Amino acid sequence: MTDASLPAPSERRQHTSLIAPDARTRKRKAAEARFRMYGIAGIATGIFFLIVLLVSIVSSGAGAFQQTFINVPVYLDPAKLDKNGNRDPEEMSKVSTFGYSPLIQNALLNIVNEQSIETPLEKGGDMKALISASAAAQVRDVVLANPDLVGETVDFRILASSRVDGYLKDRVQREDVARDKNIDAEHLDLVDALLPVGVVEKTFNMAFITGADASESRAESAGIGVAMIGSFFMMLVVLVLSLPIGVAASIYLEEFAPKNRITDVIEVNIANLAAVPSIVFGILGLAVFIQFMHLPQSAPLVGGLVLTLMTLPTIIISTRASLKAVPPSIRDAALGVGASKMQAVFHHVLPLAAPGILTGTIIGLAQALGETAPLLLIGMVGFIASNAPDGLASGLLDPNSAMPAQIYEWAKRADPAFYERAWGGIIILLVFLITMNTIAVILRRRFERRW
Amino acid sequence: MSFTKLTTSALAIAAVSATAATARDQVQVAGSSTVLPYASIVAEAFGENFEFPTPVVESGGSSAGLKRFCQGVGTEHTDIANASRAIREKEIAACAENGVTDIIEVRIGYDGIVFASQFDGPEYTAFTPSDIFNALAPRVMVDGELKDNPYTMWSDFNADLPSEEILAFIPGTKHGTREVFEEKVVAAGCEATGAMEAMIAGGMSEDDAEDACLAVRVDGRSVDIDGDYTETLASIDANANAIGVFGLAFYENNTDSLKVATMSGVEPTTETISSGEYPVSRPLFFYIKKAHIGVIPGLKEFAEFFISDEIAGPDGPLANYGLVSDPELAETQAAVSGEQVMGGGS
Hints:
- The complex is a heterodimer.
- Chain A is mostly helical.
- Chain A is built from 20 helices and three strands.
- Chain A has helices at residues 8-12, 23-61, 78-81, 89-92, 97-114, 134-145, 162-168, 174-177, 185-194, 206-210, 225-256, 261-273, 278-292, 300-324, 328-336, 341-369, 373-377, 392-397, 403-411, 416-447; strands at 66-75, 153-159, 200-204.
- By secondary structure, chain B is α/β, with parallel strands linked by helices.
- Helices cover 40% and strands 19% of the residues of chain B.
- Chain B is built from 15 helices and 14 strands.
- In chain B, strands 1, 2, 3, 4, 8, 9, 10, 11, 13 and 14 form a ten-stranded mixed β-sheet that branches.
- Chain B is globular.
- The relative contact order of chain B is 0.19.
- At the A-B interface, α11, α12, α13, α14 and α18 of A face α1, α2, β2, α9 and α10 of B.
């Protein structure tokens, strides 16, 4: 090149300085600034919606962690509960919960009279609107467990009805009560009067975290605890099945399998399986596990098996990725000093890939934990109020729900108190998911090695 | 993947063989979402008062529930189907094909169907079947002639109704409520407005005209809701001018946000429904697979408990929740304790 061929730039840039940018540079800089702004705007929008989401979840769901209780001493009338006077639990169990309700209503009426509260409600039956339908069962269980209590006055802490609870949480407004046949303004006046004397109180609701589902007539006693146990057993099945199967499959495919058409087809299919909508696995589970293999309906075992199918591709893909990330020199070195192929894999490659595998597994489990659609088809969504299972077998085989299924179920119910509980359930589910993802991040940060 | 599937199946089979002996010891119920609240209240009380485990109650609609019910006899199939309408001949035939022959029909009571709108919304306070037909049918009578439905406002055909855009959320076809809505409201309106006569005069056979009467318009003013009433409620909340179809019990739990309309001048309450004054009501049923009695522990006890006086009677928890109790409950109780199956056999 000669000067003659490149005279132009120096001539053209004669009047420009490096400090004052020319039009083209300004344009490029503006484009860059704009691009940054788009990025920041995008992130800001994302954060804004995240905050809106979290605020709405917490504000709608926080109420579920508080519940209204009534402290009332109940006289366990022998004439009603044990007519023969034998104190035989067998005989006393003939008195159903309907026989216990009047005792509790009268007990509450007694308190109202003792406190000399002015109220037009004079009959025991008028107290029904204040007391949860679960109270009778609570008292009955205590009496049947300790028959000797009959004839004594025992202090009980029973749940208030969902309308009373809603009133103390501002969910039930006085002006709406006129149209509500479940509760009257007089009842609310009574609640106001009983509140300062400590008969009615609103406290932390442990039963929401540990309890079982409840029917539509007693939203106040519904809890997510049993569904949580159902989720736990399902995750146990998923972990026990999908981790060994997934890791074994990916080690074989990655380290041992010959590269031919068959393994190519398998690889493509695993990638495709990861994209199959989860409801499809639910249909498969219904057809194979329940109708063909005759496994019990609504059992966490079946739920776990279905979710295993769903989680396997996720685990296989992430395991293969982390096996691939281990440099070939490690394998070569191991083989070079005389290790067998299997020794090379299990002594050297697998430990180095372990953090990646664990991360993938935890993320797969978190995904399975939040899954509802496949459970719809195998009978795990519905009114399932079984008590907490007492062992591994009953935990796996007795009907149970799962946390997301329970939330879905509550969101469908008529009483607005269930709606609050659905949000409360979301908070608990989110806590689990965030915990699991945090563990995955920590594991990756701590143990992952890069080459 | 074939390897993994093999392993999964092997493990599953192992699990089956381990559990074959324990089979199933809780009653399994599925069906109508209208009956679900009642069934869950009874299931809960049943679990509390008896030694048997609490039955599992699933929803999904009457048709879906009966379909599952009819799939066969055996512990992997449901024991009870809830339905908000009577079982159809076709379904009985489908049942029989799969070996489900002895079915016990149990009527638990009556339920009203109400038309409700947003509490602060327009004044939808009084409807007649003709109004609903004029608003929602694809072909209606205009000036004595059958024409494609030209109405966009309620006030277009009835000056007493507010001048608001027509928008209705009605139950989808898998719900038993839809059938009652069609029979007691749309078909009644079809006859009352004279559209049915016009169809027959136009060359349709009577059966075809009856079917044509049940159609709803498809231009987006009538929206099918396949989910539960909460979905209808959410749609009503989002559309101030809309009306929705609900069960009486659901409305009574949400009186703070819904306002109910009268039908032909009668307000829906448990009293007007049990007296028969309020026209849009229907019986609620559940169906028991007789072959499962004695196999599934507690099945018969659950059925008897369900219709006992203290549960389904006029002062029981079901009536409290919104069920209109059946005046002929005693006969139903006798039929269940005698295990009387449909079709007269025993």
